[in-house]
Design brief:
The protein is an alpha/beta fold. Helices cover 45% and strands 17% of the residues. The chain has one domain: 3-Layer(aba) Sandwich (Rossmann fold). It contains 8 helices and 7 strands; from the N terminus they run βαβααβαβαβββααα.
């Protein structure tokens, strides 16, 4: 009997700190992934040079971005993963500039091609006092099929900011590790369609409609998109 394929999960850390509160919470999730048999890896965006999107639409015409930086290496590393744990602190109700810049560079091809459809994801967010769920969910949805989110607040009026590793709700590490195990289980045994999956199917229908109404009628302007669609259809 052939060995089961190894599940590969990447922790995509959008924080400017490699070992800060966001990384601590993400690490607990990844520990759960490893405990469930997955191979885990880290990708800290602060280690890569990713420039701002220029809005030039070259990716639509040619299927590739003209900016020469680390974007393609990061994207391809994520595409090779079976699962992605996407994490970020909450800055003014949004993910960090590091993660937002990556998302901006992915936006058009995500919209027209659906770059990430195979991966299962978990969203992680930390903040001082601000809500975390929306940021965690938005990050997870950009990189595949969201199967859960987790957040933590790391400040209080009484104590100010504190290290999550030193001060956290007693069950938070357990919840995070359980979510990591759930992520691997979802990869190994896809469940019946969840609400998130139904939303993604609906987005896929809209994407095909967009292709028929807009892309196919302007083949020169969207030559790159058409080529990527054909490549993706052959792969699937």
């Amino acid at each position: 009997m052939a060995d089961a394929p190894v599940i590969h999960v990447i922790g995509l850390n959008g924080s400017p700190h490699r070992h800060g509160n966001t990384a601590t919470l993400m690490n607990w999730v990844l520990e759960g992934c490893a405990r469930a048999g997955a191979e885990v890896d880290w990708l800290h965006l602060v280690d890569y040079r990713i420039q701002y999107c220029m809005g030039c639409f070259t990716c639509l015409r040619e299927g590739a971005c003209p900016i020469q930086d680390d974007f393609v290496a990061v994207r391809d590393h994520l595409l090779d993963a079976d699962g992605i744990v996407a994490g970020s602190p909450v800055y003014e109700g949004q993910p960090t500039a590091q993660l937002k810049t990556l998302l901006d560079r992915l936006t058009l091809l995500n919209l027209y091609v659906g770059t990430f459809t195979r991966q299962a994801t978990v969203g992680v967010a930390t903040s001082g006092l601000a809500p975390t769920r929306a940021t965690a969910k938005a990050a997870a949805l950009q990189f595949g099929r969201c199967c859960g989110t987790i957040g933590a607040k790391t400040a209080s009026l009484a104590h100010g900011y504190r290290s999550l590793a030193e001060a956290h709700p007693p069950r938070l590490p357990h919840r995070a590790r359980a979510l990591g195990e759930q992520l691997v289980a979802r990869i190994n045994h896809p469940q019946a369609l969840s609400t998130a999956d139904l939303n993604r199917l609906w987005i896929g229908v809209l994407r095909r409609l967009l292709k028929r109404v807009v892309v196919d009628r302007h083949p020169n302007q969207f030559a790159g998109v058409i080529r990527l669609w054909r490549k993706k259809e052959r792969r699937e």
